[in-house]
Amino acid sequence: xxxxxxxxxxxxxxxxxxxxxxxxxxxxxxxxxxxxxxxxxxxxxxxxxxxxxxxxxxxxxxxxxxxxxxxxxxxxxxxxxxxxxxxxxxxxxxxxxxxxxxxxxxxxxxxxxxxxxxxxxxxxxxxxxxxxxxxxxxxxxxxxxxxxxxxxxxxxxxxxxxxxxxxxxxxxxxxxxxxxxxxxxxxxxxxxxxxxxxxxxxxxxxxxxxxxxxxxxxxxxxxxxxxxxxxxxxxxxxxxxxxxxxxxxxxxxxxxxxxxxxxxxxxxxxxxxxxxxxxxxxxxxxxxxxxxxxxxxxxxxxxxxxxxxxxxxxxxxxxxxxxxxxxxxxxxxxxxxxxxxxxxx
Length: 345
Prior knowledge:
Blueprint: H1 3-13, H2 18-34, E1 49-51, E2 54-56, E3 60-62, H3 73-77, E4 83-89, E5 102-105, E6 110-113, H4 122-131, E7 137-142, H5 153-164, E8 170-174, H6 189-210, E9 216-220, H7 226-238, E10 243-246, E11 266-269, H8 273-287, E12 293-296, H9 302-311, E13 315-318, H10 320-325, H11 328-344
Parallel strand pairs: 3-4, 3-13, 4-7, 7-8, 8-9, 9-10, 10-12, 12-13
Antiparallel strand pairs: 1-2, 5-6, 6-11
């Protein structure tokens, strides 16, 4: 898809409700893929890298949230991503929060969402992954159902782990969405240790059952202080998990007067860029490279992607930037990262 064609398409989609536009764009992309149309396909930048014991085509991935249910795996892989993260998925299907729940802030290429883990349930996602033509690393992001008490959250994560373990290349543990009540309490020390201990023990069982080791990464919020970050790093080390995804959306709001900025929910896109990158830098300084970081949050230009790599991320992920800039951002970001690394080699 050329930049001009994308801008025309974007202009039409931006006249629609954001959630309806999201669904329409994905189904349109899927239909084009099924018809064998080549205008939407982007040549994948070849920049192989090994992270968490996995081999990635390049360092630019799709963040969780765009394809919650695994309905669009084939067509999304054709956009040139090095890896795809599906979900967040929960044990039972759930509708999520009342609409409207997705809002654009075009002045800063930002979004606010309060979707609330709307998904068709883990069984639906598993069925879709099984029939997809996988040609890249696939991560699956898991969470708890809204009506599951925090003290029972580990049971939801175990349920999802058992379902996705044979299919996922890595599993992401989402404890940081601001849109499921009390979910972020799982980042508190006692809750976190209880959950990650259970996840680690469950993986050991599943590794024996399936004869395969699957990396696990924990997705954290950008709204953490230094003590909380140190506590999470300590827990990840204690239970020998494999990575940290930094970060989810933020509940912080800049002192600006843009329309929709007062909506509740998680803020992503351009207004999250620096917040997320600072968290990445903080984790990298704490760990000295001993725990891989997947950097996500506010990548709206290729330079943003490179900044996250320079801050200490091993991989990066895109979501909101894809909405505003189109698939060209994937290729351009992967190329900028690759060139910078070759220059410094």
